[in-house]
């Protein structure tokens, strides 16, 4: 840290650290850029990383994972918040009249694959015993089936199976792998049910009604994903038009509950694994979103944005892919996560499940879908939000890398040569970056798991 601080180019290095927003895992690039007149070929401007500290340009990693880079994840969270909120109250290209459209906050959960330790609170706010059983007894593996512990919120046993041998690990990872397809079929079933309710064919529905949504995936401590979604009813073409009068919150709730119980995905049988039919869990929650009350647009946007920066770390797994050189027994993961990862690796080696790519997504416990998705007409896009931020920064500050150019990039010929050199910072650089930007000190280990 002292060596970096005392170098003559520290000012330039500090400026780059601020420009990346305090990124904890900056990408190191080496290269040059030339801006040429497209008619004459004359060089209008030239930039080279040779003038940067160490001859390297550092750019933000732009990851969404808070466990990897808190600074970039916070930017992603804020963008997701604006995206969700714009679809509820307007702005960012969405008219304010969208507030009159029926909208609901929907939670779809996973089924049970075996009893796990859980924290249960009564209506009065007291903590109830985990899994009390009057007759007690043991399972076929000789373990007690009852747990009378009142778990604290930070108890490491939460989410762990009461009997690991009774827990269906193969079924759990296959459900995670099937969840994206289950969600796709759910959205189709919602539209079909709304069409039938209005006496229309499914293909006729789009002429009078648009179903818009934005969703995020969240891992439960037991290692299974569930989805939180905002589902909104619009007129034809999106939020600019009002939905028909028959498209009410009650109709939306009926469609969601019907679709959640109707759709299913079946995975084939292979070796010692029987064919399995996957459905949503019994706990389906549909709540209206209002401008005031318990579930406001701000509360929903904040809740969804919070989970957009998280992955499976709460289960005790890794936030990186499993390498071929990794020894599963030595990985810093919880015993439950280790069994789920082992199930992914075992099933991934079977030809019947090759299309699910379970081995590649073993660190995600089989889930390979996008954590944050939205339909086309819901609101703005993350790309548009990033472009607006770049334009704002260019108006407010001189461009640190190349200086303010007297022409637009799309009016000239740009010839660039870049080479990737690596990623990350030394511990000393991480401390300096945190001090310069006021961002949290980034994690310094590459293998992290939450206990």
Task: Give an overview of the whole structure.
It is a single chain. This protein is α+β, with helices and mostly antiparallel strands. The protein contains 10 helices and 13 strands. The strands form 4 sheets. Strands 11-4-8-7-12 form a 5-stranded antiparallel sheet, sandwiched between helices. Helix 4 packs across helix 6 (249-262). It is globular. The relative contact order is 0.19. The model is unreliable at 398-403 and 445-451 (pLDDT under 50).
Described by strand count, sense and barrel closure, the largest sheet is:
5 strands, antiparallel
Over the alpha carbons, how many angstroms does the gyration radius reach? 26 Å
- Overall mean confidence score, pLDDT: 88
Task: Please provide the ordered H/E string of secondary-structure elements.
Answer: HHEEEHEEEHHEEHEEEHHEHEH
Estimate the global geometry from the Cα principal axes: globular
| Beta strand count | 13
Strand content: 15-25%
In terms of structural class, how would the helical and strand content be classed? alpha+beta
Low-confidence stretches: 398-403, 445-451
Please state how the strands of the largest beta sheet are arranged side by side: 11-4-8-7-12
**Helical residues, percent:** 25-40%
Number of helices, counting only DSSP H or I runs of 4 residues or more:
10
The first-to-last residue Cα distance is 30 Å
